[in-house]
Amino acid sequence: MTLEEIGKLPEDYEVCLCNGVLMGDILVAIKAGHNSVEKLMDETTAGTSCELCQTRKIDEDNEREVHLDEILEYAKKEGLC
Ligand code: FES
């Protein structure tokens, strides 16, 4: 997913299917200073089950549309963290 596409995701988009973590939850955590994949996992539980939503590298078969590392990249570009 491109950074532009990530910016258009609704707040209720489910980023982590295993744990039901939404885009809005991730953005709130990022704005609160959780600015790494590990910190986001600790704060939101996203990525803590099958782990596929953590990074593009882990999700080799592109089973998830978006990953925590991409959302962080987007947030850094937008100055959210
Ligand atoms: S989809 Fe996030 S841990 Fe499985």
Which assembly state applies to the chains in this document? Answer: single chain
**What are the distinct ligands in this entry?**
FE2/S2 (inorganic) cluster
In CATH terms, what is the architecture? Orthogonal Bundle
Low-pLDDT segments, ≥5 res: none
Main beta-sheet annotation: 2 strands, antiparallel
What amount of the residues lies in strands? 5-15%
User: Which class best fits the helix and strand makeup?
Assistant: mainly alpha
Helical residue percent band: 25-40%
Number of strands: 2
Describe what this molecule looks like in 3D.
It is a single chain. The protein is mainly α and about 80 residues long. The protein has one domain (about 15-75): Orthogonal Bundle (Arc Repressor Mutant, subunit A). Helices cover about 40% and strands about 5% of the residues. It contains four helices and two strands. The chain has helices at about 5, 25-30, 35-45, 70-75, and strands at about 15, 20. The protein has a two-stranded antiparallel ribbon with strand order 1-2. The longest helix has 10 residues, at about 70-75. The radius of gyration is 11 Å and the shape is globular. The mean pLDDT is about 95. FE2/S2 (inorganic) cluster binds near residues 18 and 53. The site of FE2/S2 (inorganic) cluster has 13 residues, from loops.
